[in-house]
Amino acid sequence: MINLIIGKKGSGKTSRMVDDLNEHAVDHAQNVVCIERGRRLDRYVKYQIRLIDVSEYPISGFDNLLSFIAGISAKDYDITHLYIDSIFKVAQDDSYENLEKFFENLSEFLKDHPFIVNVLLSTDEDSLSERTKELVTVIEY
Q: Which of 34, 47, 63, 113 is the most exposed, having the fewest neighbouring CB atoms within 10 Å of its CB?
């Protein structure tokens, strides 16, 4: 399952994500990973959440990001939730066409690796293609 959390820049997407992450931290049955670019969430997220700063890895583009997610899943086979903060920044690609292809490939990957993916994107629903809306559950803030 892929949730695409959208809203204008400054609408509170990241602060709501931090609240969600910290709620997951109290449930020891959950294994939660959050991918970000930079280390801006370290002070806000409880230590039980695995924060990954992709700027420490050679990731450029959505194909590299999907491979990175597959690698994380291979190491931590019991992931329950994956969060991606600011997908265009993390992937270093701001193409909606490439984002759609990423969601297609991620959906296929999740058939064999059933965890919930929450992706944050600063945009409005009108910017998303119909195909993208079919692939994800759009949540607008």
A: 47
Which residues are paired to 2 by β-bridges?
117
Q: Do 101 and 63 touch, CB atoms closer than 8 A?
A: no
What is the per-residue pLDDT for 28? 79
Say if CB 119 and CB 3 are below 8 A apart: yes
Looking at the structure of the chain, the number of domains it has is 1
Residue 78 maps to which CATH number?
3.40.50.300
Per the structure, the complete domain to which residue 8 belongs is given by: 2-119
- Please state, in angstroms and rounded to a whole number, the distance separating the CA atoms of residues 95 and 126: 15
38-94 pLDDT per residue, tens: 998 989 999 999 999 999 999 999 999 999 999 999 988 899 999 999 999 999 999
**What is this structure's pTM?**
0.94
Q: Could you tell me the two tokens for 43? A: 């002070």
CA distance 137 to 74: 25
Q: Which two tokens stand for residue 101?
A: 């292809």
Phi, psi for 74 (deg, rounded to 5): -65, -35
